[in-house]
Specification:
Elements lengths: L1 H43 L6 H14 L3
């Protein structure tokens, strides 16, 4: 009985510590992707846009918000 109880306690502590490390690593990866997206936006800020692409984006926006 003592063996079973000690096994359950050890297993629960190990599983809890594993869950914490997974959540921390996923938070770090989310933070890295967000900063990467912001950097890409900053790079595109003062670039000249292709006229065909600009027209296509404008037409798509007009269609999507048509109602």
């Amino acid at each position: 009985m003592k063996f079973l109880l000690s096994f359950l306690i050890v297993f629960s502590t190990l599983s809890l510590s594993a869950n914490e490390s997974v959540s921390v690593s996923s938070a770090n990866s989310t933070e890295m992707t967000a900063s990467f997206r912001i950097d890409k936006k900053k790079q595109r800020r003062h670039k000249r846009m292709n006229k065909k692409r600009k027209r296509a984006c404008h037409n798509w926006a007009r269609r999507s918000y048509a109602g």
